[in-house]
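Per reviewer request, we include the raw input and output of the structure prediction for the construct analysed in the revised manuscript.
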Amino acid sequence: MDSLTHIALGACMGEAFAGKTVGRKAMLWGALAQSIPDIDFVAVLWMDTPSSLLAHRGFTHSILFALLITPFMALLAERWHRPHNISLRRWILFFGSVILVHIFIDAFNNYGVGWLEPFSRHRFSFNAIYVADPLFSIGPGVACAALILLRRKHPKRRFWWKFGLLASALYLLYCTVNKLTIDQKVRDVLEKQQIAHTRYFTTPAPLQNWLWYVVAGNDEGYHVGYRSLFDRDTAMSFQYFPRNEHLLEPIRDQENIQQLKRFSQQFYTVERWTDTLVLNDLRFGQVIGWQNPREKFAFHFFVERPDDNRMVVQRGRFAKWDREAARALWLRMKGN
């Protein structure tokens, strides 16, 4: 999830744990613990783009990292706030739970999380919620603001931390139900339309949880389309994108190519754009694909111009967005 949501969630958890004992400092500890796995962002300072893509949500989002960092943070907080009546064991349980919540929630979007690193490269992704969903963020965000404004012993503080945590938990559950529903509908569509595939996934289109982006295919290419929870039509319209693996043949053994393939979890296509070869990671969707089904993919890596690939995951996320694109998204969400 986005950093502000993690901070707000952590602040609510900190208030629940020790708000009455250490005051607003408990919110700061919670916000810090919720943010610590994202320390991997510093990898971009010395790694090339493919390496930093794999480093993000890698080891610092692993169970092993949580086990290593938790006692350190617990000892620091326990010594910082002496004298107090909070045992070291409770501090460990608090920091451990906050950090584990972070790496658990991050697995619900499509980037993938390396829970088992460094022992396994497998990335866990449930593809149930968009990385920045306002409806997920608003509950803990409002609660965090209220906790900042209310005095330390105000009787409403208990209500607000509960509200922040419960609102986010219920919305995540709602998104999971939507995911299971849309997956069942898409499986039926793929079967009825006889679309051959060895792998497929569904993930929400930007900023909401009702319109879903669908990819199904194999090593030859992928069918791409959109499905709303409110669609009445049992059929789907797909666009086919060939994988074009042959274009990578001269450079297939290069390390950056192997890294990009692994990062994409095999959901990639290759294209030739005038002056460079482009590798698309299909998991991050299309640029306004609900409006233009043949649009470019948001994640596209310039294979022959590596210096042009900074912020590659963000490159096309909100490109070409305007009033018409937003209106088209709203109309498509409502169903066909």
